[in-house]
């Protein structure tokens, strides 16, 4: 279409150009022809002028000769006049031959005979005969005129005067047609070129005679030569075109003195048509300029068009992008809407399911209240359903918080050991329950002390690993790896967390939406799995909040691999040299058959500032031990892997004990439960167990534990089992009657007492009235009518009583986020316990402050 | 206004400025032709002094095929520009051998003071030098650079009367392909030369040596004067010749006899050669490979119009002599008429034409031997055998102004008589006669 439009546009332009070209050509040609005609006329005029000048000179010479002849006739002895004559540039020789004699005298003094001259052609100047041209005694081309000397009507002598052609030099123009035209004088009788331009002429142009002229200028056509001969014979002029040295030229032969001599030569056409050429060139220049201007305008027009087209195209593309984005947004909204619908449907199902269980079992409980076994069973099931319901609510709240951008990371120092241990403690039993193998490994990590939000990291790992447990069939395997990557900055540890399983895997379609909220992999196999479908969305958001990345690869029926990469800041901490010095530990021996494990242990220990030697087996370990002993040193700590080639860790411990006695702490590294081998190990001289993967912090804790054991101190963990609130009296704020009742019942179970107030003001008033030490602690709900928990706390703390500042106030609220904890602390509370109340946690918390 | 818009505006501005500038330029060019003042005649700076120069060839343009004239022309232009003078040309060339020769016309013209500057052949230099018609050019600044051979050849009665723009070396131009065809080596001695001619003749080549009426004396000169110029006692022998102690006939006899033998054996067609002008006559046969050998001057090998573009492998060697291949050096030259109207300007122009700068240009264009000691250029391969001999100092002079008897012209005339049927004895007697006349002067 566009091409056709262009063609429509081009055809008229071409037509205009053709017409314009034809017009310019016609005008130029006409000018050229007219100028050419004018130039030829001009040339003819020039030749006529030269001819007339030469003829005038001839006539002058003839006239003067006649006058001299008359003078001679009057003289008594004319010979004396002749002999006395000094030649001049024109008349170079004067001779007188008396009538009836053949010889006479010359002014040169030599005898003169007219027989040497040839007057046979009968050419005359005026009426005086002129001889054929010849080279005279001066070496110059010359001619002689004969004039009778008549006295009293009788011819008494003949008077001869010799003239040289060189005297006519000035008649020939120096620069005819700017020097490009040549002009010779040719004697028509001898056809010799008797006068040549004094500014010279090319020898190659032929300057000897007419034949040489023909040869030199390549005029070989017989018809031309014949025509020239005929014209010369008849004393006529001839002008003809011929190429001379490759240039179109005009050759002229112009008769002078009725053809006794000829002006011959040539001029290139371009020289005589210079003006015409100049006019044509100027026309051409104007045409070129006009064309250039036209094409420039066209160029500008097309350039502008192109720019406009480009802009239009860009706008179209932009519009398309917007449309696409809108469509995508619409689709996303639709999907989100659909997801939310699905989610609500799921929620309805997922909430109703445990609620149904709770309500159902409550009904059953009411019915079977008399049967303690059934009550026990029903309450257990109610508890399970309630816990599931709680986790469901927690996730939903977490997602809504993340999506509204309210999540704030709480950074703090933590150890990888704690992280791995806590995760291991949760996941391993779950995996074990499903008879799954759970493998944990740490490799290439240089720093185990890191700064980050441990709780959220924990949440990530739990989400990934609990999914792995959930979506892996019974008897499957789960791998949890922490791998140290090359550091990008010395201040950050770059780690990769891999969670791999050989479970059900996911479909490619699901993989695309796995990190979207409210989605859940569903099929006949996984339908049995309960979940909110929010875990992965929460995980991805937290990872990204931490500046990390999360990727997943999965194949249905083969398994899944989640990879999280994070950069966690390394805390500015000094190497804890004092710890090692205190326990006189300067070197540690680690025996493990796995090279990666050995390297990991060595790196971590050496980063802690002490030396680590590693051995792969018994022989190597013993050799190292002996070498140390030989130098009077001992390893203070020896780490033995349980699984060693040939001999296991326990046996090796026994051998080492025999060798070194009790000089070192021997710890068994194992990723298995050690309960089965504990007794055997202790008997073999092993001091304790360390869970794999190895961490220095775990080692330090273990050393401290052993030292405490040696000194008879109790393990705080053991103390936890003894926590109790028996006999304590609490003041509690709770506006919900049911919750208040539950609280009273729970405290009663724990043999503690509690006074419950309906709002914060009542709590404050009650505390004001209380005797010092009447209450051991205050349990403060936050959201209450009249006065909320924070205000109440501030009011209590502001009271002018001694115990107002010291009494522990513990937030006990359903506001369970980190910022709620922070707000509680800021309000003056000592701790925060989230609802629903976990009595064990409450007891531990209370005990911390009492 | 965003950046793109600003860029567009800038482009438009550039276009407008460019178009305005172009229009102004055109307008200025259109108006620039106008002349100021009332008198439209261009002032040519007054009349220039004009020197009349008489030479055998006309003026040529720089693109002309005849490089010799072109090079000469450039040196003349150089002189014209430096001196703000003008040189007018007059030339003469005989139509045929019946007319006056160039040398005859030169003598006539200089005797009648027709011109100021002449290009002279060696014989006319000798004659005019003796007559005192030529100015002593020793005073010219650039004569200090001349080679000794040039000075020797053109000094008459202690006066340096002519100076050339090139040292003309004559040699034997041979068709190497034809020599190889008949398994012949380039001849060194007269005997070897005769043998080569015999072989060519026997193989059907009618005239092994192409000749004209000008240059056959080179055979005589090379053979006869080989010992004179290469024997180590040149000065003494010349003095003995000038004093009549040695007769020319004794020296020239072997050369004439050798030439006579060549004519007698039919190796040279003397009668025809007598009617030939140089190169015009024998040249076409040589180029057509009908004749394996011709005589010519150095520059003929460089000129495409002459022997510069043969269809065969050509080599230029010296003439046969008892001293081996012998180049014949003929020193022509420019002479200034003692009574010339513009004698002083002619000398000034000649001085510039003979400067090292001018001679370098001339020599590079023509690839000839320069008369200046300071100028030397590489020659074409064909000329290398001849140049090698000259560089070795082996050559004979075609003309020697220190000899009382003029050599180049007289020998040319006497050789013509030999060609015309005179005997060797008659020719030698004529030379003895010339020697006698010189002794009587």
Describe the structure.
The complex is a heterodimer of chains A (850) and B (441). In chain A, 48% of the residues lie in helices and 21% in strands. The radius of gyration of chain A is 65 Å and the shape is rod-shaped. In chain A, helix 6 packs antiparallel against helix 7 (372-403), helix 7 packs across helix 11 (535-545) and helix 9 runs antiparallel to helix 11. Chain A is built from 23 helices and 30 strands. Chain B is of the alpha/beta class and 441 residues long. Chain B has helices at residues 3-31, 67-83, 102-111, 122-131, 148-153, 176-181, 190-202, 217-230, 234-243, 248-264, 270-273, 283-287, 343-353, 356-366, 384-391, 408-419, 424-440, and strands spanning 50-55, 86-91, 117-120, 155-156, 159-160, 168-175, 209-210, 293-297, 314-317, 328-330, 333-336, 396-397. In chain B, strands 6, 7, 8, 9, 10 and 12 form a six-stranded mixed β-sheet that branches. Chain B has a four-stranded mixed β-sheet with strand order 2-1-3-11, with helices on both faces. In chain B, strand 1, helix 2 (67-83) and strand 2 (86-91) form a beta-alpha-beta unit. In chain B, helix 2 (67-83) packs antiparallel against helix 14 (356-366) and helix 10 runs antiparallel to helix 17 (424-440). The longest helix of chain B is centred in the N-terminal third of the chain and has 29 residues, at 3-31. Chain B is globular. Chain A binds chain B through residues 135-140, 166, 169, 192, 196, 198-205, 207-209, 289, 300, 307, and chain B through 8, 15, 26, 57-61, 64-66, 69, 88-93, 95, 99-100, 104-109, 111-112, 114, 305.
């Amino acid at each position: 279409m566009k091409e056709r439009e262009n063609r429509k546009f081009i055809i008229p332009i071409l037509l205009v150009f053709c017409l314009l070209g034809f017009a310019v050509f016609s005008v130029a040609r006409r000018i050229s022809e007219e100028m050419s005609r004018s130039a030829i006329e001009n040339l003819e005029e020039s030749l006529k002028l030269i001819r007339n000048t030469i003829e005038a000179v001839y006539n002058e010479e003839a006239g003067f000769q006649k006058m001299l002849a008359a003078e001679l006739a009057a003289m008594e002895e004319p010979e004396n006049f002749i002999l006395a004559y000094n030649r001049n540039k024109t008349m170079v020789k004067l001779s007188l031959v008396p009538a009836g004699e053949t010889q006479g005298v010359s002014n040169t003094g030599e005898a003169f005979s007219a027989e040497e001259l040839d007057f046979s052609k009968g050419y005359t100047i005026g009426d005086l005969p002129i001889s054929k041209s010849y080279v005279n005694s001066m070496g110059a081309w010359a001619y002689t005129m004969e004039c009778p000397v008549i006295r009293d009507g009788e011819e008494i002598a003949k008077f001869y005067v010799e003239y040289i052609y060189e005297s006519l030099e000035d008649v020939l123009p120096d620069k005819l047609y700017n020097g490009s035209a040549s002009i010779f004088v040719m004697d028509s009788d001898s056809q010799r070129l008797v006068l040549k331009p004094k500014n010279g002429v090319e020898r190659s142009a032929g300057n000897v005679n007419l034949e040489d002229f023909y040869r030199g200028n390549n005029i070989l056509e017989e018809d031309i030569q014949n025509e020239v001969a005929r014209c010369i014979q008849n004393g006529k002029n001839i002008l003809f075109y011929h190429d001379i040295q490759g240039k179109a030229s005009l050759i002229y032969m112009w008769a002078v003195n009725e053809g006794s001599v000829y002006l011959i030569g040539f001029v290139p056409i371009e020289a005589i048509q210079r003006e015409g050429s100049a006019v044509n060139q100027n026309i051409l220049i104007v045409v070129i300029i006009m064309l250039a201007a036209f094409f420039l305008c066209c160029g500008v027009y097309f350039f502008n068009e192109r720019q406009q087209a480009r802009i239009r195209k860009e706008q179209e593309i932009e519009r398309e992008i917007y449309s696409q984005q809108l469509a995508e947004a619409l689709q996303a909204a639709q999907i989100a809407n659909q997801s939310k619908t699905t989610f609500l449907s799921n929620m309805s199902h997922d909430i109703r399911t445990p609620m149904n269980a709770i309500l159902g079992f409550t009904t059953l409980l009411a019915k079977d209240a008399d049967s303690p076994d059934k009550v026990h069973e029903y309450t257990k099931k109610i508890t399970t359903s309630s816990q599931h319901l709680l986790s469901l609510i927690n996730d939903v709240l977490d997602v809504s918080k993340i999506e509204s951008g309210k999540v704030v990371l709480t950074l703090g120092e933590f150890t990888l050991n704690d992280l791995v241990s806590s995760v291991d403690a949760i996941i391993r039993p779950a995996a074990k329950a499903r008879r799954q193998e759970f493998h944990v490994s740490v490799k290439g990590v240089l720093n185990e002390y890191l700064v980050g939000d441990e709780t959220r990291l924990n949440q990530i790992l739990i989400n990934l690993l609990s999914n792995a447990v959930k979506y892996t069939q019974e008897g499957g395997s789960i791998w949890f790896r922490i791998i140290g990557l090359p550091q990008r900055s010395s201040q950050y540890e770059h780690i990769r967390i891999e969670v791999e399983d050989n479970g059900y895997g996911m479909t490619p379609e699901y993989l695309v939406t796995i990190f979207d909220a409210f989605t859940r992999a569903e099929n006949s196999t996984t339908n049995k799995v309960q979940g909110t479908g929010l875990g992965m969305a929460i995980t991805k958001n937290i990872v990204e909040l931490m500046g990390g990345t999360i990727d997943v690869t999965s194949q249905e029926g083969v398994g899944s691999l989640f990879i999280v990469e994070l950069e966690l800041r390394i805390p500015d901490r000094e190497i804890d040299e004092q710890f090692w010095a205190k326990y006189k530990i300067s070197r540690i021996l680690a025996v493990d058959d796995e090279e990666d494990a050995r390297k990991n242990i060595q790196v971590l220990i050496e980063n802690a500032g002490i030396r680590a030697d590693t051995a792969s087996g018994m022989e190597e370990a013993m050799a190292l031990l002996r070498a140390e002993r030989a130098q009077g040193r001992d390893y203070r700590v020896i780490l033995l892997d349980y699984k060693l080639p040939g001999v296991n860790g326990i046996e090796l411990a026994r051998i080492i004990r025999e060798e070194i006695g009790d000089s070192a702490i021997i710890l068994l590294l194992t990723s298995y439960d050690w309960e089965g081998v504990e007794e055997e190990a202790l008997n073999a001289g092993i001091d304790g167990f360390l869970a794999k993967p190895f961490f220095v912090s775990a080692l330090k804790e273990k050393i401290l534990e052993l030292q405490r054991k040696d000194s008879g101190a109790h393990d705080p963990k053991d103390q936890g089992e003894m926590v109790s609130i028996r006999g304590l009296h609490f003041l509690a704020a709770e506006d919900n009657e049911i919750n208040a009742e539950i609280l009273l019942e729970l405290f009663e179970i724990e043999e503690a007492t509690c006074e419950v107030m309906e709002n914060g003001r009542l709590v404050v008033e009650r505390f004001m009235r209380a005797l010092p030490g009447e209450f051991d602690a205050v349990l403060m709900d936050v959201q209450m009518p009249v006065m909320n928990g924070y205000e109440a706390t501030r009011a209590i703390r502001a009271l002018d009583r001694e115990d107002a500042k010291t009494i522990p106030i513990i937030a006990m609220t359903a506001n369970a986020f980190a910022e709620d904890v922070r707000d509680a602390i800021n309000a003056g509370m000592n701790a925060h316990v989230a609802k629903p109340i976990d009595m064990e946690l409450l007891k531990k918390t209370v005990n911390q402050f009492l | 206004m965003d950046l793109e818009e600003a860029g567009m505006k800038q482009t438009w501005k550039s276009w407008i400025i460019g178009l305005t500038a172009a229009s102004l330029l055109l307008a200025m060019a259109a108006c620039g032709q106008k002349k100021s003042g009332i008198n439209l005649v261009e002032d040519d700076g007054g009349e220039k002094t004009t020197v009349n120069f008489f030479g055998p060839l006309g003026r040529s343009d720089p693109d002309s095929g005849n490089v010799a004239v072109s090079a000469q022309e450039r040196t003349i232009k150089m002189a014209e520009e430096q001196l703000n003078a003008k040189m007018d040309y007059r030339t003469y060339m005989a139509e045929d051998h019946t007319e006056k020769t160039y040398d005859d016309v030169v003598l006539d013209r200089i005797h009648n003071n027709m011109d100021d500057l002449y290009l002279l052949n060696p014989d006319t230099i000798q004659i005019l030098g003796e007559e005192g018609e030529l100015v002593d050019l020793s005073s010219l600044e650039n004569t200090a650079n001349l080679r000794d051979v040039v000075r020797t050849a053109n000094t008459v009665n202690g006066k340096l009367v002519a100076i050339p723009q090139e040292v003309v070396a004559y040699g034997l131009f041979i068709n190497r392909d034809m020599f190889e065809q008949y398994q012949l080596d380039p001849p060194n001695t007269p005997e070897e030369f005769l043998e080569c001619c015999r072989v060519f003749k026997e193989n059907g080549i009618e005239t092994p040596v192409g000749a004209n009426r000008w240059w056959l004396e080179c055979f005589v000169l090379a053979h006869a004067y080989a010992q004179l110029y290469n024997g180590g006692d040149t000065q003494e022998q010349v003095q003995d010749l000038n004093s009549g102690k040695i007769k020319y006939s004794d020296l020239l006899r072997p050369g004439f006899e050798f030439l006579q033998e060549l004519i007698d054996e039919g190796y040279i067609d003397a009668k025809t050669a007598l009617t030939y002008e140089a190169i015009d006559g024998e040249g076409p046969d040589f180029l057509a490979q009908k004749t394996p050998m011709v005589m010519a001057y150095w520059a003929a090998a460089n000129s495409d119009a002459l022997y510069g573009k043969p269809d065969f492998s050509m080599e230029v060697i010296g003439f046969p002599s008892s001293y081996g291949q012998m180049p014949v050096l003929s020193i022509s030259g420019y002479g200034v008429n003692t009574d010339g109207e513009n004698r002083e300007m002619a000398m000034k122009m000649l001085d510039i034409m003979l400067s090292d700068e001018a001679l370098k240009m001339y020599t590079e264009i023509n690839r000839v031997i320069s008369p200046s000691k300071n100028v030397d250029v590489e020659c074409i391969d064909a000329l290398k055998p001849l140049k090698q001999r000259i560089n070795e100092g082996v050559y004979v002079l075609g003309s020697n102004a220190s000899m009382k008897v003029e050599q180049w012209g007289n020998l040319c005339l006497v050789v013509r008589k030999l060609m015309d049927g005179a005997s060797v004895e008659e020719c030698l007697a004529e030379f003895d006669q010339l020697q006698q006349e010189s002794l009587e002067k």
